[in-house]
Design goal:
By secondary structure, the chain is an alpha+beta fold. The protein is globular and about 45 Å long. The longest helix is centred in the middle third of the chain and has 8 residues.
């Protein structure tokens, strides 16, 4: 992947122009965080990596030898193995940085992709990028621990996760749940 490009991952194969939705923007992601999106759109996931300020204890506890992790609910495994994805590339000049840790950029303008690449096996693509994919029965406890750590992270689509375990109390409320 070209590191001077931004990307958008979709399950739609033929987007010619990305148009902001009403009161919204077009989102894009850096090459360094693209792997966080190489799963079906609605898949709940907890993604994380070490930043320069990440403690040695958090590196050991959460990453081990991995440089980045994408944790996914086990119930989503078959969809992650079989859903084709389309990675659209953009020139970055129309976009503004929204969240450096997550790698998010946005624009309020319509934007044409430079090209699109089809990915037939998302889990294979993650492995090829050296990402440690972890399947868990539930993401809720990991979500809390990662959000309370010194790691860089992105927690995505938790509103689609299985219900939290009985007695679970989140310190970080989930919008839309």
């Amino acid at each position: 992947m070209n590191s001077d490009r931004l990307f958008h991952v979709s399950e739609t194969p033929d987007i010619e122009v990305f148009v902001p939705r009403p009161n919204d923007t077009v989102w894009a992601i850096t090459a360094a965080r693209l792997h966080n999106y190489l799963v079906p759109r609605d898949c709940p996931r907890v993604t994380f990596y070490a930043r320069p300020e990440t403690s040695a204890a958090d590196r050991e506890r959460f990453l081990g030898a991995a440089s980045s992790v994408v944790a996914i609910e086990s119930a989503w495994r078959a969809r992650c193995e079989s859903t084709p994805l389309y990675v659209y590339a953009f020139e970055p000049r129309q976009f503004r940085l929204r969240d450096e840790i997550a790698g998010y950029y946005t624009t309020e303008d319509s934007v044409r992709p430079l090209h699109v690449m089809r990915i037939d096996g998302p889990l294979v693509a993650l492995a090829e990028r050296g990402v440690d994919v972890r399947f868990l029965a539930s993401l809720w406890h990991l979500r809390e621990e990662v959000a309370d750590s010194s790691l860089g992270f992105s927690i995505i689509r938790m509103r689609n996760a299985s219900p939290p375990p009985d007695g679970f109390v989140s310190r970080f409320p989930v919008p839309g749940r």
